[in-house]
Please model this.
Amino acid sequence: HNGPDGDFPMGRMIYGGGTEGSINGVSNADTMEPSQVNWMDAQEVQGPALEISSEWLVVGHIDEVFQVVPVWESGAITGNKIVIASPQMAADVLEALSAEGKGDLKVFAGRQNYEKSVSGVLADEELMSYNIRVQARIDSIQTVIQNATGLPDEDFLPVPVLFEADYYGSLDMAIALNPGIQNLVTAKNTLFIPDPEGPVDGGLDQWQEATRRSLEATGLTLEFVDVFWGYHVQYGEAHCGTAVERSPMAQSWWTKGEVTP
Model:
């Protein structure tokens, strides 16, 4: 990007950490070892590295909140977008169904001990209140990224993900309630996306449909994959449990700025 912090043709390093505390306001800090940050900054080309808040998350990985994907046009990558979790979008889908008298539709249909109704989710005041605060934290993360990079709002593509609190003593740590869509795998022009297992109306998963609408501008093929028992209930999603072997970029990043004799 070419933003307020400078020109970063090789991209920018972003890492998790922070001192803002939990979503419910419990004091908590979890920051990367300074020597590690200094090592990243010393690379210069993709630094200074940018810290975004992750101390409120169970796992603490930034792909629990967002992930960068390519924009694919005419058989080539022409840019990038940021897919970012949105509790507000997830709630909006449920509220729209409820308003249509479809509150009995199921979320996580057929998943023993996990199945819930749309009305049941919306009636959980503690859960919905928690997600309002999660959305505020995610909004603040987006603001940090935008202030550093100059990326416009349209480069952030929201996808429906609710979070829940997992308690450790008095400390609440957040984890995705439905499979975290943004924790996806990019393979060339295809996104392998955790199936959110949302309410099905008219034969269509409405959280999937909201995702399709949001990601349409990327030109990528979307493939929803079942991660529920394999990863999700074990605090992971698609990106947590897989890796893609990739070819390195044509230009070695450490030669940036050097003059070729």
